[in-house]
């Protein structure tokens, strides 16, 4: 029997900027929700809801320490995101290579937009 699939996937979990910031904070050290909520202009309950989504996606783990619950980053699910982004890196790398070649060229041809040239409407109509 396989492990149950998470309620939220990694892409859904990181779609929200608050959750991305929570992951950054937890990258440094484990923290309780009271400490985490001090970094945001939202309620502790709202931060807890964001942590629940991250937990459902497998990105954070809860651990009881005395009377408080501490959260820790679990980066393994981010590998799925890394693999997905790796596919698109080749497009970025290609564009950067072309830009570098243009900048480093001895006598670069001036950049001119392709297609028809846009002319001020007033000049075209003789105004």
TrEMBL record:
It holds the Pfam family HTH_20. It comes from the Bacteria. Residues 107-127 are annotated as: Disordered. Keywords: DNA-binding. Residues 1-93 form the HTH arsR-type domain. PROSITE patterns: HTH_ARSR_2. The keyword DNA-binding applies. This is Metalloregulator ArsR/SmtB family transcription factor. It comes from Paenibacillus gyeongsangnamensis.
